[in-house]
Amino acid sequence: MVQKAKILLVDDRPENLLALEAILSALDQTLVRASSGEEALKALLTDDFAVILLDVQMPGMDGFETAAHIKRRERTRDIPIIFLTAINHGPHHTFRGYAAGAVDYISKPFDPWVLRAKVSVFVDLYMKNCQLREQAALLRLQLEGGGRAGAGGDGREPVGLLAELSARLAAVEEQAEALSKQLDDESADVAAVATAAHLERKLTGLRRALDALEPGTGGPSALPTQS
């Protein structure tokens, strides 16, 4: 069963949160509410999120300050943030949003279809990254088991395990390639394209590590680190 991604919705107005839930419910992911910057930061302490939709104008800690806290934390600094604002003070205001770490800046009222499409891109990227981490973790586990017992932890020969891992990785590579083509076709946000490129680089590193483990290649090489 594929685990759903979590999307954090941050707005001090309940009606706005309800509207966001109505727009994003079609994505069939887990939507988490936060009615303040402080509540959002608390949620980020325990859960991993694919993307954050953050209202700019909030009493107390506003969206800019909340984003600054998010970007200072190692655990959360790479989570994409989409700013939502009901006001537009011109280029300077928009620049402040991007300077705070946002990947996008959308003025209300916004097109529900556009917002859903943007969020969907980051959910897809998040899911591909999760798959990549799982494959890397499985590879490390099987290599450790093979090194101790000369076979996989479940009794299968290393060659069979490598073939299975290679097939699983190929499926992730195919999905990542399709996503990259989709981003190119839709002239997606620069941040989304950069994230997809980063994912492809990590997939390439994992593929090289797997290829180096094939019989006759001289033995295992260093596995790619997760960044």
TrEMBL record:
Species whose genome carries this gene: Streptomyces yaizuensis
Domain Response regulatory, chain residue ranges per copy: 6-123
Protein name listed in UniProt: Response regulator
Entry keyword set: Coiled coil, Phosphoprotein
A Pfam family it matches: Response_reg
Matches recorded under PROSITE patterns: RESPONSE_REGULATORY
SUPFAM superfamilies in UniProt: CheY-like (SSF52172)
Gene3D superfamilies linked: 3.40.50.2300
InterPro entries linked to this entry: Bact_response_regulator, CheY-like_superfamily, Sig_transdc_resp-reg_receiver
Keyword Coiled coil tagged: yes
Keyword Ribonucleoprotein among record annotations: no
Transmembrane segments: none
Sites of 4-aspartylphosphate modification: D55
Ranges in a coiled coil: 162-189
